[in-house]
Amino acid sequence: MEFAGKYDQLKATKVSEGIERRIVKTENLLLANVEFSDGPTSEPDPFHSHYHEQVSYIADGEVFLFVGNEEKVHLKAGDHFAIPSGIPHTIQRLTKFVRIIDCFTPIREDFL
Amino acid sequence: MEFAGKYDQLKATKVSEGIERRIVKTENLLLANVEFSDGPTSEPDPFHSHYHEQVSYIADGEVFLFVGNEEKVHLKAGDHFAIPSGIPHTIQRLTKFVRIIDCFTPIREDFL
């Protein structure tokens, strides 16, 4: 069992152009360190949803967060958000670089 | 339902002298933004364990991470760690200020 997940030793997965993901996990919990270097983006990404619950920490940069039909919220480094199971959500990057720490339960098997 | 957890709007709980915690959560997932301003500490905190699984991101500062009988690991801002259910662990702060983003499943009822 590897407890420590040093940044330099984690495998980086290219999600799409300008988006990279590194993960650490336990049995039912997955942390994804997601780096977006494609900002600022001119519009939000398409909404998506998943049955996994999600809590997130904005480590770097600024975004608009969109959740369901709620008014968008301006979040910046140091802020957080929480997405219950099945709720549509998305972000728009407001800065060149954005890093978000996303945690999910259960495991995002699609990230492995 | 409040999706956004802006830092300035979250309630800060004083855990002990020099340690503060802010949380956001969903049904089965809790994120704790823990600020330690008591460093550097001359020795590790006592080991503790919990049945909750934990994944963590070091947002600021540097620590030694101790897990079970493993050799301690030097982690710094940008690094991560993962603690399965029931495994004893602790940290020692190596810098004045340390911020760790701890995520747990299930909810840490003791943090509410």
Protein traits:
homodimer, 112 residues, mainly beta, 10 strands
CATH superfamily heading of chain A: Jelly Rolls
- Rg of chain A, rounded, reads 14 Å
Which second-level CATH architecture of chain A applies?
Sandwich
Please tally the helical runs of chain A, counting DSSP H or I stretches of 4 or more residues. Answer: 0
Query: Average pLDDT across residues of chain A?
Result: 96
Give a brief description.
Two copies of one chain form a homodimer. The first copy, chain A, contains no helices and ten strands.
Question: How would you describe the overall organization of this protein?
Answer:
The structure is a homodimer of 112-residue chains. Chain A contains no helices and 10 strands. By secondary structure, chain A is mainly β. The first copy, chain A, has one domain: Sandwich (Jelly Rolls), CATH 2.60.120. In chain A, 0% of the residues lie in helices and 49% in strands. In chain A, a hairpin with a 5-residue loop joins strand 6 and strand 7. The two termini of chain A are 17 Å apart. Strand 8 (80-83) of chain A pairs antiparallel with strand 1 of chain B.
SSE inventory with pairings:
2 copies of one chain form a homodimer.
Chain A: E1 4-5, E2 13-16, E3 19-25, E4 30-36, E5 53-60, E6 62-67, E7 73-76, E8 80-83, E9 89-93, E10 98-105
Antiparallel strand pairs in A: 2-3, 3-4, 4-10, 5-8, 5-10, 6-7, 6-9
